[in-house]
Amino acid sequence: MTAAAPVRVGVLGAGVVGSQVVRLLREQGADLAARIGAPLELAGVAVRRPHRHPDIPADLLTTDAAALVARPDVDVVVEVIGGTRPTKDLLLTALRRGAGVVTANKALLAEEGPELYEAADLAGTDLYFEAAVAGAIPLIRPLRESLAGDRITRILGIVNGTTNFVLSAMTAGGDSYEYALKEATRLGYAEADPTADVDGFDAAAKAAILASVGFHTRVGAADVHREGISRVTAADVAAAADIGCVVKLLAICERIRRPDGGESVSARVHPVMLPRTHPLAVVDGAYNAVYVEAESAGRLMFYGPGAGGAPTASAVLGDLVAVARNRVAGGRGPRESAYADLPVESIGSVPARYHISLDVDDRAGVLAAVASAFAEAGVSISTVRQQGRGRDAALVVVTHSAPDADLASTVATLHQLPAVHRVTSVMRVMGEVA
Amino acid sequence: MTAAAPVRVGVLGAGVVGSQVVRLLREQGADLAARIGAPLELAGVAVRRPHRHPDIPADLLTTDAAALVARPDVDVVVEVIGGTRPTKDLLLTALRRGAGVVTANKALLAEEGPELYEAADLAGTDLYFEAAVAGAIPLIRPLRESLAGDRITRILGIVNGTTNFVLSAMTAGGDSYEYALKEATRLGYAEADPTADVDGFDAAAKAAILASVGFHTRVGAADVHREGISRVTAADVAAAADIGCVVKLLAICERIRRPDGGESVSARVHPVMLPRTHPLAVVDGAYNAVYVEAESAGRLMFYGPGAGGAPTASAVLGDLVAVARNRVAGGRGPRESAYADLPVESIGSVPARYHISLDVDDRAGVLAAVASAFAEAGVSISTVRQQGRGRDAALVVVTHSAPDADLASTVATLHQLPAVHRVTSVMRVMGEVA
Question: Annotated catalytic, A248?
Answer without folding.
Answer: no
